[in-house]
Amino acid sequence: MVDTIRAEKGVTASAPSPPHKRQWRRGWLPYVLLIPAVILELLIHIIPMLVGVGISFLQLTEFYLSNWRAAPFAGTSNYRIALNIHGATGQALLHSFTITVLYTVIALAVSWSFGMAAAVFTQRAFRGRGVIRTVFLIPYALPVFASVITWNFMLQRDTGMVNQLLLDLHLVHSRPFWLIGSNSFYSLVVVAIWRSWPFAFLILTAGMQSIPTDLYEAASLDGSGAIGQVRHVTLPLLRPVNRVLLLVLFLWTFNDFSVPFTLFGSAPPSQADIISIHIYENSFVSWNFGTGSAMSVLLLLFLLLVTAIYLAAGRLGGRHA
Amino acid sequence: MRPTKLSTLAIAAALAAAPLAACSSSGSSGSSSTTHPTLTYWATNQGTSLQADQQVLGPQIAKFTKATGIKVNIQVIPWTTVLNQITAATVSGKGPDVLNIGNTWSPSLQATGALLPFTSSVMSQIGGSSRFLAGSLSATGAPGQPPTAVPLYSLAYALYYNKAQFAAAGISSPPTTWAELIADGVKLKKNGHWPLAIEGGSVAENIHMAFELSQQQGGQFFDSAGKPTFNTPQNVAAVKQMMDFIQTDKLTNPSDAQYSKGTEALVDYATGKTSMVIWQAASGSLKQLGMNSADIGVVPVPLPSPVPAGGKPVTSMVAGINMAVFKNTKNMSAALQFVKFMTSTPEQESLNSTYGSLPTVSAAYSDPAFQTPAVNTFLSILKSSAAPMPPVAKESAFETAVGTAIIHLYADAATGKAVTDSMIGQALASAQQQLGG
To answer: Domain B157-317+394-434 classified CATH 3.40.50.300?
Structure first.
């Protein structure tokens, strides 16, 4: 009671503060709490990224590894080497970029479709739905190395389970290669889809929880079947969720290093030469970290461009949502 | 009580400071005290597995700790990542105190300036350079500079063959020429064995073989000025010979193109799946894999007959493991004591007899363990038909570039895409361009 009187007195006794000062006094706490995250983000992400951009303008070879400041300035020559598609390095980078775009688009499309289908089918409660949802999430929850190395064992030509199954089911007459040759691209796509579709499923399931069920009832009363309901109710209302989901999945799949590295080792076949591994190999093959950094900067610019275009397009379309 | 502005600020400051404190440098290699420091030692994978190496090195190094009180933290690094880790340690300045390096990497690592040069004063602290075999000491850096490391294990390539399978196929003696090997292969295949196992997915195994075959053809990968000369007819012929093992001579199972861990081809030989393998001295590993020692036969790698014009009778590169010290170690004298221990005669005898490699100090050869026929074969290979890899600064980049190109060519051969001379030439030219040459 004493507090209430004091509070009342506080309200009447002091003069009303100007509006911006009142807002500042209320608003400083979130910014202060953000300080640790900002500092760590700077230290771990932003500053190393800027250092990487700086390296891309140097000729940082094995002679200067232990003393970067002595490395000669290379201007834009690293970028010219990386972008020169008539040279071996530039050609290989373009090839790797094309493979990665293809891989990302296919993996993204199939992962999203599987995730969407599974989310729709598990939307209404049925017996065992909890178990089904848990089983669906297992690939995403497993540690990358353990799960992908198991795929590596399964895809071995002579001793792997996949070839054994294919032979037993008489689907093939001779054992194909899955880890080298043209099949390696499909192996990588399958493993990537296996790992990322549960994430799409999870996000879409969460997104669907906020769609009111009476909309579905209204739709079915209007005569639309299951597919019609998905088209007219679910998809439009999931648009904001999908916008974020597709962008995140695209960036993660494009940048993926651990899945291809664990599946193929440090020398992936040229048909599955994903760009993150390609840049890593390039830095350590030629020991010219300047070129490797230039490639990384180019990759960063490409992804920023894609993100910017995607978000701009989303905002244009979003005005109608 | 509502939190005051001050206490909230204090909490925020503490939260910000805590991770910074944790991130702060903890000093290199965890030395606990100056009188009894702890050394960090990066060992390479010489045995059949990382654990096997720990079991070999642990008891030996325990003797060192007992004698000097210096503890050693042994980390065994797989071949697939060791060069990258050494590079990362060079860049960051934070690495082990003592480390093993592939002896062929010595010139490249020397160029980074991260390793302690073994000048005569440093050499005298570990017992002097005259103790070492001249051949082993030759692969420790670029000519004209003090060694960047000291030789620890000496190795060479030889042709391992299965005596029992040869006898069963009616082959009286192991092949000395490539033509004989191919003919023997036909007989062995009739008996249901793959004749030759190849570690087709391994950079190191591919590049060593390519170098040896190139020497036999009279080729070279770097000219006398140190400039790369990858795309030459002799080098192409050497790589073509390797591809033909799978595609033309059918000596090798195409699945071998997937073998990348550095152990699978040897395991195939040890378990009797294949009759021959070209490998560095492996008696220790073969014993561990359970191969019957009566079946193990060792002869030099075959030569072409006749040797082409300009070709050299080279059957192996000068292989081996060197031991180096990081220049910015905080435990310099302890590190040198450890190097002295590992290159001491008793340790050289013990470790090399376990691994099946050859000691790098001449005094160790009086031990009867090194007077077996297999050791004599390797010793004579090292003395008369072994050539060192190019001692240039770009050497390890060359190994990775050309070795990786050969992995891709093996994959093409294995999946049925015929590898032609022009494909090989293109691959070698691209590899050379990647080096900036």
So the answer is: no
- So what's the ipTM on this one? 0.77
CB contact under 8 A, A32 and B9: yes
Query: Given CB atoms, is A154 within the 8 Å cutoff of chain B?
Result: no
- Cβ of B411 and A181 within 8 Å? yes
Residue spans per domain, chain B: 38-155+318-387, 157-317+394-434
User: Is A282's CB within 8 Å of B411's CB?
Assistant: no
Asked if residue A272 belongs to a domain, the reply is no
- A18 is a domain residue: no
Neighbouring CB atoms inside 10 A of A134's CB total 10
Tokens of B5: 């502005």
d(CA A25, nearest CA chain B) in Å: 10
Mean pLDDT of successive 10-residue stretches along chain B, which has 437 residues: 55 52 42 71 90 93 93 92 87 90 90 92 92 86 92 94 94 95 93 91 94 95 91 96 95 92 90 94 86 93 93 93 94 94 94 89 88 88 88 87 94 93 94 78
Total domains in chain A come to 1
Segment A254-291, tens digit of pLDDT: 999 999 999 988 788 999 999 999 998 888 766 778 88
Whichever domain contains A220, its CATH number is 1.10.3720.10
CB < 8 Å to A179, chain B: 258
CATH 3.40.50.1950 fits B38-155+318-387, yes or no: no
Cα separation, B431 vs A175, whole angstroms: 32
User: Helical H runs in B154-278?
Assistant: 163-168, 178-190, 203-217, 233-247, 264-270
Among A89, A180, A285, whose Cβ lies nearest the Cβ of B404? A285
Secondary structure class of B339 (helix, strand, coil): helix
Backbone angles phi, psi at B218, to 5 degrees: 90, 20
Q: What is the pTM of this model?
A: 0.81
Residue B258 and residue A156: Cβ atoms within 8 Å?
yes
Q: How far apart are CA B342 and CA B362, in angstroms?
A: 14
Is there a contact between A285 and B401 if contact means CB atoms under 8 Å apart?
Answer: yes
H/E stretch holding B111? helix B106-112
Tell me which residues of chain A, numbers 279 to 318, contact chain B at a CB-CB cutoff of 8 Å: 281-282, 284-288
In a domain, A173, yes or no: yes
* Residue B113: exposure state from Cβ atoms within 10 A (0-12, 13-18, ≥19): middle
Cross-chain CB nearest to A35 (options B16, B394, B412): B16
Asked whether the beta carbons of residue A62 and residue B15 sit closer than 8 angstroms, the reply is no
Chain A residues with beta carbon closer than 8 angstroms to that of B425: none
Structure tokens at B93: 């300045």
